[in-house]
Amino acid sequence: MANSIYGELEQLGKTGGAAQTPEEAILEYVKNPRPDSDYVVRFTCPEFTSLCPVTGQPDFAHLVLDYIPGETLVESKSLKLFFQSFRNHQAFHEDCTVGIGERLVKEMAPKWLRFAGYWYPRGGIPIDVFYQTGAAPEGVWVPEQAVPTYRGRG
Amino acid sequence: MANSIYGELEQLGKTGGAAQTPEEAILEYVKNPRPDSDYVVRFTCPEFTSLCPVTGQPDFAHLVLDYIPGETLVESKSLKLFFQSFRNHQAFHEDCTVGIGERLVKEMAPKWLRFAGYWYPRGGIPIDVFYQTGAAPEGVWVPEQAVPTYRGRG
Amino acid sequence: MANSIYGELEQLGKTGGAAQTPEEAILEYVKNPRPDSDYVVRFTCPEFTSLCPVTGQPDFAHLVLDYIPGETLVESKSLKLFFQSFRNHQAFHEDCTVGIGERLVKEMAPKWLRFAGYWYPRGGIPIDVFYQTGAAPEGVWVPEQAVPTYRGRG
Amino acid sequence: MANSIYGELEQLGKTGGAAQTPEEAILEYVKNPRPDSDYVVRFTCPEFTSLCPVTGQPDFAHLVLDYIPGETLVESKSLKLFFQSFRNHQAFHEDCTVGIGERLVKEMAPKWLRFAGYWYPRGGIPIDVFYQTGAAPEGVWVPEQAVPTYRGRG
Amino acid sequence: MANSIYGELEQLGKTGGAAQTPEEAILEYVKNPRPDSDYVVRFTCPEFTSLCPVTGQPDFAHLVLDYIPGETLVESKSLKLFFQSFRNHQAFHEDCTVGIGERLVKEMAPKWLRFAGYWYPRGGIPIDVFYQTGAAPEGVWVPEQAVPTYRGRG
Amino acid sequence: MANSIYGELEQLGKTGGAAQTPEEAILEYVKNPRPDSDYVVRFTCPEFTSLCPVTGQPDFAHLVLDYIPGETLVESKSLKLFFQSFRNHQAFHEDCTVGIGERLVKEMAPKWLRFAGYWYPRGGIPIDVFYQTGAAPEGVWVPEQAVPTYRGRG
Amino acid sequence: MANSIYGELEQLGKTGGAAQTPEEAILEYVKNPRPDSDYVVRFTCPEFTSLCPVTGQPDFAHLVLDYIPGETLVESKSLKLFFQSFRNHQAFHEDCTVGIGERLVKEMAPKWLRFAGYWYPRGGIPIDVFYQTGAAPEGVWVPEQAVPTYRGRG
Amino acid sequence: MANSIYGELEQLGKTGGAAQTPEEAILEYVKNPRPDSDYVVRFTCPEFTSLCPVTGQPDFAHLVLDYIPGETLVESKSLKLFFQSFRNHQAFHEDCTVGIGERLVKEMAPKWLRFAGYWYPRGGIPIDVFYQTGAAPEGVWVPEQAVPTYRGRG
Amino acid sequence: MANSIYGELEQLGKTGGAAQTPEEAILEYVKNPRPDSDYVVRFTCPEFTSLCPVTGQPDFAHLVLDYIPGETLVESKSLKLFFQSFRNHQAFHEDCTVGIGERLVKEMAPKWLRFAGYWYPRGGIPIDVFYQTGAAPEGVWVPEQAVPTYRGRG
Amino acid sequence: MANSIYGELEQLGKTGGAAQTPEEAILEYVKNPRPDSDYVVRFTCPEFTSLCPVTGQPDFAHLVLDYIPGETLVESKSLKLFFQSFRNHQAFHEDCTVGIGERLVKEMAPKWLRFAGYWYPRGGIPIDVFYQTGAAPEGVWVPEQAVPTYRGRG
Ligand SMILES: [Ca+2]
Ligand SMILES: [Ca+2]
Ligand SMILES: [Ca+2]
Ligand SMILES: [Ca+2]
Ligand SMILES: [Ca+2]
Ligand SMILES: [Ca+2]
Ligand SMILES: [Ca+2]
Ligand SMILES: [Ca+2]
Ligand SMILES: [Ca+2]
Ligand SMILES: [Ca+2]
Ligand SMILES: [Ca+2]
Ligand SMILES: [Ca+2]
Ligand SMILES: [Ca+2]
Ligand SMILES: [Ca+2]
Ligand SMILES: [Ca+2]
Ligand SMILES: [Ca+2]
């Protein structure tokens, strides 16, 4: 299996930290090593935090990304650093979640993409946001994310 | 991301409480910040209470709202206060649940909406009510709510 | 919301008990308060018992009813008393479950109905019975009942 | 292993049903086949029903019995028929649960006994009753029953 | 079993609602029908709501009561109405939970009592309060309440 | 409900044991008591054992059968005895599971049938086998079996 | 680590099957490789079957063994074959479970032993049997087996 | 119940954000409203983040605090802001967790305190840290925190 | 059932270990014993490990294979040895998972195949990869794999 | 908090891989940063593999370590590399698990240590091994590891 598709990367195996803002964060891509098949890649990130634009207080979310690669894969360390770059970013939940999805679509040019943010409750009521680029292509397998709905207590 | 869409709000960041009745409660809306995508927003409210029209005794429910925004998002604090306005309201379970759904549809003009009430048991038998405006639009992702069916004991 | 639809009921708020047989039990109906929407009502009854026609010994089941109201709703207390009227009734599992579903369909004239009995094991093997009147109408939301399949031990 | 300890039984392998009342029900006993060891026997009965003394309506419970045999074991079919004999019996939850425990103690003369009733909710609030004859003897292993506490909805 | 211990009750089987304040609410007691045994009675109430003293907004809690009766049992309907009387009461979580426990102790004179409030999150952080009158008496069985610790999302 | 459909049975209520081989086992059928409805019957058997054809060692499986009756129902005791007849039978997992399904189809002539074997792991890797006669008929409700996928440890 | 303690074994790595009866089954032992520490070994066997002495029908159980080795360990393949030797053995649940425990104690001479059988339900009521040789020695860690109590349906 | 104990607080109901460092963060205290009882207060914070001292990358933890108040309660909003002040703080897991516990002990002077950090995995291996001031006082009830041990996948 | 289809196998019942590389590993096939039915075979392997191509450190995955046999079945021991042959193989997650799927397709010529790898987290973010050969054929039953999405802590 | 305690480490932040054998693996230690408190550190490692001494085939385990530090903490990366060094090591389950515990005790000189291996099943029966150095010191909090007991299927 071709190791060389990772040869140009700037961040993998380096010790640099995350960018200070999402705008500065650079997602890196590698060549799809299995271009003859349509398959789904899922990344699960339970360690996401940003700031509330109204109060400046921290928000937290559990994120799940599903996509069908086109010509490239997103490199996982650069994805992690991209998510970390929201640490001091102010964002509304709906806008932030869909915005991440839209940016990934624009940069990655995947065949299909689904992205969800499962936000922690504020005022006793959590928000979940579910975005995708449209119906999944025929014949590709996309399991449910099955992150539990918020339960409260008891 | 545009903070300004929240600039006209009356309730966000204010200390006023809930209206005394659902009729008096005012849902506020902000401009959909991502109008180019169809996505689903889910609010989960496990803290709902109203009164039984027959006995006057309190009823409780766990509510879940899913919708695809049209031109506006419902602002989450006003939604919370709207739910709180049922505290002294007398309502049958089926009527109350569908009625909330219908009002949200009328006011929000969402592209699609789903609303469920999972009521606590009375007489050993709980009622769940599942309402939606019709089939979800093609290509939009709507995960199951997956609130557990009532189990009894054992 | 119209309280008056409950005005004619004989059993709600009364202290009379269940009928002695299913044949004698009377299901009561009220006007559908939200006739402009198609929605699903779910009743979950984990407290059902009847008698085995062969041995006379008690059987137990966990029942779940889903339906889309037509012109009427079934009143929940009369439904509870109807279920209780099977206490001294002898019934095979398949026949009993489908028979309840068929009777509800005949009396209620719902737009659609689904009814399941999850029976306790006999001879180490439980029976579940799943009945519905046909495919659910387009555009109506019917979540899975998701009652766990029998597991045995371990 | 001695089959003969079962030779005197009246109910095992017979087709007779349950007695009509707990008072008429006869618990049968067999000789403890392992009298040199102190061990715990657990019976779990999720199929128990009696009647409410105030309303006459059915009550349901999930029962768990733990005991350390003395000279005898309770025969399991007679125990099942004993539990079935409550079907038309009127009983308050606390009284009924402790009463069953006390009767089993009196008749069985076990070295130790624990008995719990996990009743289905009435008025939205279930009652659990936990009875035992005292601290378990030193050196005997008594796992927790771990029946889930009532959860409500959500 | 003695039905007569319930003969003096004012609220059981009556249609009166809850008192307007906890101070006005009257807990009723019946004679312990099994005074020769020490046993535990557990009531689980997932339907509790009060008001925040600072903001006036609703708070919710899941309550669990365990006690060993002395000469009396608390009657379950009067307990339900007592819990309902907090609906318009302003209370801090720690104070409210322990206060309910202390009042029950004072009025019931139980041999032992344990009371917990599992409050819904505020500011993303829920409070649980665990009160008991001291170590449980030797030889009495008190299973864990095992209400799940708050989990957040993911 | 017609008890008479059970009148011809040889095994129900008799004390005979299982046949020595699947070939000798006789499945008995009764008339479908609800021929006007299409419904699903599920039998769950967590107590199945056969022998490995290579090593002769015992194998175990958890079986679940779903079918839509045609003119007959399979009688549950004869089904139990049929499953027990594999106790000394040597069978590969795939062949055995599909073979049971095929035999039931041939004998029962159901409108549709689904049969699964969830085998215990050998070599650290369990096999599950999922058989059905084709797509379920339109309008019939077939819930997922939802037996958990093997998990290993941790 | 000394492989040689396994050198004398007759069954490990051989292809012989289980003995035909428990009496003929031979448990093999190896030298405790860590005699300076007191530790617990747990074997979990969800694949156990024997025969009912009354009806001759199969019984099933989930077994868990915990012990603190003395001078020897029980070799796991011989333990598996010992459990398999009950396949055609007739046994009452209480007697069988405690009998296995007592035999293991007699042969292994462990410092301490705990053995449980979690039997599948008969007549709707399963039996669990919990045996141990006495209190675990001070300072040794014995986690709960935490096999779920039988739940029934729903 | 005395509202006045909250009268002196600087942060409750104010809009100021978290301090920039733990050193600057000020925990506020109110008078224990129930000084005659020993009870436990639990705060669960699943939204904690700090920085790794070696790599500067974000760490995340789920925190649970249990304590028995002495003369004061910690005010919950100031506790939340204290936890938020670690957002840009560099901390090793063991040191950070125990350090928070020690500071709370020093400032609050509780009768007893327990504090745990359940950190997200690094290198595939998560660290949990469990600190308490000693054995809980006799007669006080301290339920297990029961946060699940890390599971990995499958 | 035909034992002879296993007669030509080289690895089943032999003591040889796994090949040193996936390239050297030989998957063996047997004739489909039920060629008249389309059914699904699932293998679950929670014991998979390979090496990271960048760091050389071990990676772990939970694998699940579903396929509809054509003329052959894959023999389970050879499949186990094939999975073991990755022990010293360096592989990126996406490439490795899809590559295994593609090889199985090429060699087995199944009617349909689905293969998933659920990898353990690296950098706090696990990758799942979902591959299939296209939509499952009409009328074949393919249950969800339902391996839980990664949860993190809390 | 003192970063300097990590200054002497050879492996943290370096790219060297695991040693080839446990004997060669070097565990590194840092000064206990909180020597005035007795607390428990838990490491959970679900990614452990070694080789069977009889067959040479891979074994897998889920490991959990709990200890109370004395003068030092074990550095987590060196612990990870130590666990990885068993990859080509042949080990019996009981011996390997207790041996790791004994080595950690000898090298770390903790105040107390507990170590468990939860091994994947072989022959359908998994082995768990539970080791500790004796009773935990008074006043230190050691939550249960609560790794689920093996369940089999169903
Ligand atoms: Ca799906
Ligand atoms: Ca709840
Ligand atoms: Ca779906
Ligand atoms: Ca139940
Ligand atoms: Ca569905
Ligand atoms: Ca099982
Ligand atoms: Ca215990
Ligand atoms: Ca909140
Ligand atoms: Ca306990
Ligand atoms: Ca979480
Ligand atoms: Ca695992
Ligand atoms: Ca049974
Ligand atoms: Ca314990
Ligand atoms: Ca405890
Ligand atoms: Ca990691
Ligand atoms: Ca499906």
TrEMBL record, chains A, B, C, D, E, F, G, H, I, J:
Q: Name one GO molecular function term.
A: preQ1 synthase activity
Could you tell me the keywords of this UniProt record? Cytoplasm, NADP, Oxidoreductase, Queuosine biosynthesis
InterPro entries noted in UniProt:
GTP-CH-I_C/QueF, NADPH_dep_7-cyano-7-deazaG_red, QueF, QueF_type1
Keyword Ribosomal protein part of the UniProt annotation: no
Q: Which GO terms describe its cellular component?
A: cytoplasm
Tell me the compartments it is located in.
Cytoplasm
SUPFAM superfamilies hit by this protein:
Tetrahydrobiopterin biosynthesis enzymes-like
Catalytic reactions on record = 7-aminomethyl-7-carbaguanine + 2 NADP(+) = 7-cyano-7-carbaguanine + 2 NADPH + 3 H(+)
Q: Which biological pathway? A: tRNA modification; tRNA-queuosine biosynthesis
GO terms under biological process: tRNA queuosine(34) biosynthetic process
Q: What is its EC number?
A: 1.7.1.13
Report the main location listed first in the record: cytoplasm
Where substrate binds, per the record, is at: V74, E75, S76, H93, E94
Please list the residues that make up the active site.
Answer: C52, D59
Q: Which family does it belong to?
A: Belongs to the GTP cyclohydrolase I family. QueF type 1 subfamily.
This chain belongs to which protein, by name? NADPH-dependent 7-cyano-7-deazaguanine reductase
Q: Which organism is it from?
A: Temperatibacter marinus
